[in-house]
């Protein structure tokens, strides 16, 4: 018996009903017309391929900060680390006025009202990387440079592993 028709007994004519698959709206159908639509996510959330680029970059910054915290303890644990996509207009104007390139991050010194903070800009740092293999070393070096600026020290003194990434882009 075809879907979408009802059988009547007696004098009634067969009538079309509205619960035929083609009569339902697209939103009410669970899958597409031929039943080949996606049934769920392609990757489970716990698999590494399901993480976004921002989440992976945040992980790299957190790993670099943890390494520095192991070396310096409370001096680095008091610093708040964050990631932003790109620098703001004011940061770009200050860098241009000083004759420098695009900043890779910024630091804010501690005050009585706020803790010290380090912000790493994701896109400029990713642009330095020729391959995804170089990115962890670049992120580590950038975080070390920013923490060294906050602590008023040389980057080599902050972390002996500084400089693993060859600086051919500077």
Automatic annotation (TrEMBL):
Protein name as annotated: Metallopeptidase family protein
